[in-house]
Amino acid sequence: MFERLTDRIQGAIRGLRGQGKITEGNIQEGLRSVRLALLEADVHVSVVRDFLEGVKTRALGEEVLQSLSPDQHFIKILYDELQRVLGEGSARLKFPDMPPGILMLVGLQGSGKTTTAGKLARHFLADGHPCLLVPADVYRPAARQQLETVGKAVGAQVFQPEPGDGPVAICKKAVAEAKRKGSHRVIIDTAGRLNIDEVLMEELAQIVRAVAPHESLYVADAMAGQSAMATVKAFHEKVDLTGVILSKADGDARGGAILSVKAVTGLPVKFVGVGEKYDALEAFYPDRMASRILGMGDVLSLIEKAQSTVDAKEAEEMARRLKRAEFTLEDFRSQLRQMRKMGPLEQVLGMIPGLGAMRGVDPSQIDERRLKRVEAILDSMTAYEREHHQVINGSRRKRIALGAGVAVSEVNQVLKQYLTMRKMMLQFKKTGLKGMRRMLGGVGR
Questions:
Q1: Residue 214, CA distances (Å) to 82, 96, 173, 244, 332 in order
Q2: 34-74 pLDDT tens trace
Q3: Looking at CB atoms within 10 Å, which of 10, 52, 346, 445 has the fewest?
Q4: For the chain, how many structural domains are there in total?
Q5: Are residues 292 and 311 in the same domain?
Q6: Model pTM above 0.85
Q7: What does the CA dihedral 269, 273, 279, 284 come to, rounded to 10 degrees?
Q8: CATH number of the domain encompassing residue 404
Q9: What is the structure's pLDDT at 245?
Q10: CB-based contacts of 209: which residues, under 8 Å, 6+ apart?
Q11: Cα 393 from chain centroid?
């Protein structure tokens, strides 16, 4: 997400480096560059105008703090204004203390409602809340079967409607069953249409009157950009939405929908879908998103992602080994597996502050297939070889390559990468963070 926008903004920031202070003259070119980047990102023109006016007013109306250089101060202003546009504060889901909490998903056909229902169910289950998925789409062929497949994949129950029941009857009976069985969350997957029509809107209004959902969320395809905003408004007028979930945001390099939703519709973004897997759903935090847009990473989300996937005992053992100046091929394989568990590597690396600005490092160019080949090479080694890399001679390399189905040159390359990483780990132990920074400064040269 935000690839082009981040590059343009960082270019505008670089233009202020070396300047004594911020003036109308030296920020004019930077603001023009940011304006073009926002328009290219398909951000609504009114949002662009409001954002740039806010940045310019603050940049020229504030004294530059003594502790900050002009470019650093400009970053702070951009960050604050982006937060304002995205919606200050995080918008959490609101459910009553007494379950079940009822959540209804609405949107056009193909926006990803059913998959999002599964992602939400997984999210709630991880927090200890039993879920009931409700198939309220009686029109699309195999819609119920698809939801059953999703429910099975995430471990959530799926309500079984009686033959002939319409959407309203299904929802009322599902809520009654959730109360009987003690389900904490009811997720209603409603029917979508290829476009807005009165029949669909009236059906949704009837469901709202029948079960009074606590959250009514519109699932918007992030790649639809500005065109999604008018649809959100139309649904909001009929259903009284409480928020938006942006699906398929990982496929949107522009990011215009994320930047436009709050300002154009007045509705908060509550979740962002960042991949096809059921764990690829992130709670939306404006401050973290603003940080990502500016290329500053997102450490908090990275930590949360790591905490949910990394084995604590394994991490403790790794820390002990590093203290003893040990880093074997077994550790290398373990680290690779843990990182792959956290999701697509491009997303993980994009959360690391400053990585995108390092010369020669482009997270979008990471080849996941290449990582699988590296893991296959490590798996082809014996446990002894992974613990004692020095024994891997020419004949062993041929055997490892044959077992992994790769050329010997690829085995050599993996071993070279491992030795470089091992050197960095040992260097970090000796010199600490400053020494690591000096080493990273040479990446890509």
A1: 29, 8, 17, 14, 47
A2: 888 888 877 888 888 998 888 888 877 665 555 456 677 77
A3: 445
A4: 3
A5: no
A6: no
A7: -30
A8: 1.10.260.30
A9: 93
A10: none
A11: 42
